[in-house]
Amino acid sequence: MRVLVLLDGTPADPDAPLIRVDDLGLLRGDGVFETILVVDGEPRELGPHLDRLARSAAMLDLPEPDRAAFERTVDVVLDRWAGGTEIALKLVHTRGVEGGDGTPTGFALATDISPKVLAQRVEGIAAVTLDRGIEPGLAERAPWLLLGAKSLSYAVNMAAVREAERRGAAEVVFTTSSGSVLEGPTSTLITARGRHLTTPPAELGILPGTTQAALFRAAEREGWTTEVAPIDVADLYSADGVFLVSSVRKITRVHTLDGKALPDSAELHARLDALYESEY
């Protein structure tokens, strides 16, 4: 099932042609988006997602997203949803049409979560490390590269996933050329050692994760320690668990990296999943 609502609150047919061919989000990927998990009609981390949408828009010098309009649009989508209990809700904000009056394009699209992603949550995934071609400090030195913005320009990310599939894996762990861990194409990386969780810093040019933040809050409440710090690729093989987390995939364990089996983290995964769910 799919539900589409335009930013003015108008429901639309998701199978009908609606985006203009000269929309800059389509022509150049000149826009930003967020994907929100909705469970039993309740959007998770809606505020942080809208905050991040606004930060990404500012990085692209886009018009500021109309937060109230997006909140109303979300309500309309959820009122019209009659599908499964878990939804992937995508909010999109583009620069609008080329040569237009500057009015941005905005909409919300809700879809069921794919069976593949649901299975990966349970079974875990194999991943490969791929060089992202960036180094520490690049985001600060070259802000025009938009590192850390959730833009619509995801061609590189999707190419990386296809390369992983060619190598017999399902996912990617991006790295710097010097071997520091970054993130997944659509996820944040977390390592666990005992009751200590670590994720790479945003200063490396990665997108701060809303799911990672929720997990860290829950873990800290239960006496775990958390840290935002650099991680080397070698550290992934010695960790008790490696996880890729996002709104839709939730907490997904990596059981194999570059063809090498990682320590069995099934029990640890269950504990982290329970911690995350305790936030809601």
Structure described in brief:
This protein has 280 residues and is of the alpha+beta class. Helix content is 32%, strand content 28%.
Helix/strand/pairing class, anyone? alpha+beta
The largest β sheet comes out as: 8 strands, mixed
- Corresponding CATH superfamily of the largest domain: D-amino Acid Aminotransferase, subunit A, domain 2
Strand composition percent: 25-35%
Oligomeric state: single chain
- How much helical structure, as a percent, in the residues? 25-40%
Weakly predicted, low-confidence segments: none
Question: How many beta-strand elements?
Answer: 14
Tell me the span between the first and last alpha carbons.
25 Å
Q: What's the helix count?
A: 9
**Total individual domains:** 2
Which architecture name of the largest domain does CATH use? Alpha-Beta Barrel
Order of helices and strands: EEHEEHHEEHEHHEEEHEHEEEH
CATH class of the largest domain: Alpha Beta
Q: What is the 3D shape?
A: globular
Q: The CATH topology of the largest domain, please? A: D-amino Acid Aminotransferase, Chain A, domain 2
Give the radius of gyration: 19 Å
Averaging pLDDT over every residue, what do you get? Answer: 95
Would you write up a description of this structure?
- It is an enzyme of class 4 (lyase).
- Belongs to the class-IV pyridoxal-phosphate-dependent aminotransferase family.
- It holds the Pfam family Aminotran_4.
- This is Aminodeoxychorismate lyase.
- The protein is an alpha+beta fold and 280 residues long.
- Helix content is 32%, strand content 28%.
- The strands form 2 sheets. Strands 7, 8, 9, 10, 11, 12, 13 and 14 form an 8-stranded mixed beta sheet that branches.
- The protein is globular.
- It starts with a strand and ends with a helix.
